[in-house]
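Predict the holo structure. Ligand: pyridoxal-5'-phosphate.
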Amino acid sequence: MRFQEPAADILARLDELRAADAPTHGGRVLSYVYDTGLAELDELAAAAIRAVQPVNGLDPTTFTSVATLERELIAFVRELLHGDADVVGTVTTGGTESCLLAVKTARDAWLAARGLEPGAGRPRLVAPVTVHAAFQKAAHYFGLELDLVPVGPSGGVAADAIAARLGDDVALVVVSAPSYPFAALDPIEAVAALGAERGIPVHVDACIGGLVLPFWPGLAPWDFRVPGVTSVSADLHKFGYAPKGVSVLLQRGRDRQRRQFFATTRWPGYPVVNPTILGSKSAGPLAAAWAIVRALGREGFQDLADSCRRSTEALRAAVEGIEGLRVVGSPVGPLLAVAADDAAAPERRVDPHHWADAVRTRGWVLQLQPGAQQSDETALPPTTHLTITPVTEAGLPELVPALVAAADEVRGVPHVDGAELLALLPTLDSVPDSETAWVLLQGVGLGGGAELPAQQAPLLALIETLPPPVAERLLIELIARLAE
Ligand SMILES: *Cc1c(COP(=O)(O)O)cnc(C)c1O
C-alpha cells in the first residue's frame, strides 16, 4: 500500500515536535521525568515495548506473556516492600490508577461490611492535606467524603490529628511515603496501629518513594513490615525508571484485594474480568518495567538511589546556604520543597516562585507549588519542588551556581500579590463558562498557545487567590483549548 505521506516525513515532523518539548533527558527538568542517564537502559525499554507492541494487556489468558511479566514484576516489588504470602498485587497504568483502585477497594469493603450497595452510603477518606491529588480524584469518582487533616509547618501530619478524625464512617486512611509536596514521611507506624485497632484499612501511598526508599538508609518501617498497612502503591514509572504507564498496587489479604476487580457476565459480549480500570491496554510499559528490573536488579537500584541521595544532600546544603531560602521540614527521599526563609528580613528573602522563574531562564525547570490556607487557619507557604534523579549528579556543577545566581537576581522581590492581579479582572459571581473563562485567560496573558508564559509566578498567585472552583475552571479551559 502507498502511504499518503512517507514514513520519513512523518517521523521528521514528530522529531520537530519533540524538539520543542522540555528536555526529557539530561536532568534539566526536576519533576515529571526520572532519568537514569543510562542510554542502554532506555534502549532496552524501547526494545521491550516493541516486542509486545501488538499485545492486548486486557487478556492474560490469550496473551500469556502478560501474566508472566505481571507476576514477576509484582513478585519483585512485593519482596522489596516486605510483603508476605498474604500480599497480592496488580500492575496498573500509573500512580493515579493505583490510588483510585486502593480507594475503590476500601469503599467496596466498607459498603459490603454494612450490607450497602454502592451509592447507598458516603464513607469518609481521611488523609493529610499533603496527600496526592489522585486521592481527591478518587473521592470524587467513587463518592467518598474527603476529610483532609492539616499538617504542621514541617509538612508532616501528627498521628493524633489523624486519630481525632477516625470513626465508623471512615473507609480508608491514606498516608504517604513520602508526600509529594514536601517529601514528608508520614507517621506510618502510629497511623497503621490506629487503623488496626479500629479495623480501618490504611493505604501507604509510596507512588514516588516505593522504588527508592527501600534503598534509603535509616528510615523507620513504612511498608508491609508495619502491621495495619493494608495496601501500598508504588510507581515503576517514577524511581523504577520505566516509561510512563506502569505502577503496582499491592494489597494485604486476597479477599480484600478481590474487591478491586470488576467482572460482568451480564452482557452479550465476552465475559469481562478487569483488575484495573482500563479495558484494552498496552503491555508496553509493563514489559519495559519488567526488563528494567531484570537489568538493574537490587544492586543497580541501590547504586542509582545512592546517586540520588548524594545529589539530594548536595542540593539541600546548597539551598540552605542561599540567604533568603530554606528547605521545608525534613525531606525524606530524593525530593524536596523550597520556601522563603521567614527568618530573613523581607528585603533579603527570596520568593520561591520568582526564584523558580529565574532558574528557568538559566535552563532548569523547577515546579512551582501554591501556598494555601489550611482548615485550621494555618498557612502552607508557597514553595518550589525539586525531584532529584540519577542524572542530577552530573549536572550539579552547573545547577548549583544557577540556583545561587537566580536567588541573587530576585532577592527582596516580594511574592506576587494575587489580590492586585484579581483587581484587573472583572468580578465573577459564579464559575465562568467556556467563553468567559477563555476571555479571562487571554486578559491575563494566558491562552496564547501550548506554552505557558516564561513567568509562572503570576499564574500561581492567581491560583492562590481565586476561589478554587474558579481557578479550577480556568485551568480546565486552558488545557481543553489545547486540544481544539
Ligand atoms: C506521582 C504520584 C502519584 C500519582 O501518580 P501518577 O503516576 O502521576 O498518576 C500519587 N502519589 C504520589 C505521592 C505521587 O508522587
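The chain is about 40% helix and 15% strand. The CA atoms of residues 293 and 300 lie 9 Å apart.
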